[in-house]
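Do me a favour: review this protein, sequence plus structure tokens, and tell me how the chain folds. Record follows.
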Amino acid sequence: MMRVEKVEIEDFTEFDIYVEPEEEELDEGSPLDSAVPLTKEELASLTRSALSRKKNLDSSSPIELAKIEAKARDVAFNIAEWVYLAADSGEWKYVYDMNKLGQDYLDPTIQELRKHLSGVHIRSCNSSRNRWIEVSWRTSNEA
């Protein structure tokens, strides 16, 4: 037979509820514990390699830069067309996935977009795994 203790309900408040954490939750720790620790030298070498990549891009031949700018103009024109179509269909923003293009194309594409779409908010992400451009034209007082 099961023994049940009689507990007065008036003795408890909503703050008295206790849930025992599972074993997995106890061992997890903070997210920084599982991150790879980086020393000052490792961070410095990472920064130097990023700067050298940027320098290589800056020192590219004029023909290479012209090709990048031409492709960026085409992509910016394509994004502008999709922005107009999105606005025509009642949307307030458009996101273009830049993962198919190299990192070299992101900044020139944004510069071209700013020429064609003045007064809109352009946001971008340029990480190794995720690259996109978001164009938003909603004002703060729009419903």
User: Anything to note?
Assistant: Strands lie at 93-97, 121-126, 131-136. The helical segments are 23-28, 31-34, 40-58, 62-88, 106-116. Residues 40-136 form one domain.
